[in-house]
TrEMBL record:
GO MF assignments: hydrolase activity, acting on carbon-nitrogen (but not peptide) bonds, in linear amides
Protein name, as recorded: LmbE family protein
InterPro entries linked to this entry: GlcNAc_PI_deacetylase-related, LmbE-like_dom_sf
Amino acid sequence: MDLLVVVPHPDDESFGAGGALLLAKEAGLKTGVLTLTRGEAGRTLGLCPPEELPQVRVEELKRAAAVLQVDYLEVLDYPNALPEGAQGERGPATGRGLADHPEAVEAIRTRLLRLRPRFVLTFPPDGINGHPDHVAASRYAREAAQGLAQVVYLVRPDGPWPVTHRLRLPERVLARKLQAIAQHKTQALSVLKFLEMFPERLWTETFHLPGASGLREGPWW
């Protein structure tokens, strides 16, 4: 495998790296997505009972992964933390979520040993938005990848981690990325919030490759 995206929740893969996954596939690379939770703390929007949300979100992810044409998809079942200030009908969530489960490092490493990706794409150490699951996933992925794969961060264009690679998505890729995002129907309010706050991040994806300097227009692979 060439590129494995390691993120905490279903939908993170499409928002942050949908374009990268599609462009990598077009370039002939083998791609994969590993999510560490089933996203049970997300909103239901009345589309399913709260107790059914984990399985519904897994099915949404499967459909999104098919649109993104990934070669490998796996969903682990570590707990999903509620985001700060969360309101409204949501699925079950207890404790501190993913941050309470450092054993996830070994679970990730086991899969890296089997899949042997060249690159692991995950959130930066600050989790890009401070969500405790994002921060934990980043830490676990970095620790698991030591000596096995090059870690790359998906970052904000104005964040603390300088952008070293920028992908401007062609229309055909943007169209498929939007189709992938649309599969996450239970998270439609998150989609709308993203569109309101960061519309440009739909067609432009930015990344930080540790050790690289300057800005390159194009992929890191």
